[in-house]
């Protein structure tokens, strides 16, 4: 029994050391992709359009405030990345959101 517990403890410690904690959440990645989709479209980066896309893509009930907060904090960076020539598929990776 002690051996089993020791092995489990060792595995947990090794995993914690090898795998750094994720700095972003799945929701942030999804919100970033939705923001890129809106910013890259001809409609432009309108907040209402992003909010609709954000709610649709998350597929879980989140408050409007979360999507609004994300767009307020990150939309300028997303637009700048797109204007700098970063491909839409790579923007969220470049900004470390996915």
From TrEMBL:
The keyword Signal applies. Pfam families: SapB_2. Residues 1-16 form the signal peptide. Residues 25-98 form the Saposin B-type domain. The keyword Signal applies. It comes from the Eukaryota. PROSITE patterns: SAP_B. Gene3D superfamilies: Saposin-like. This is Saposin B-type domain-containing protein.
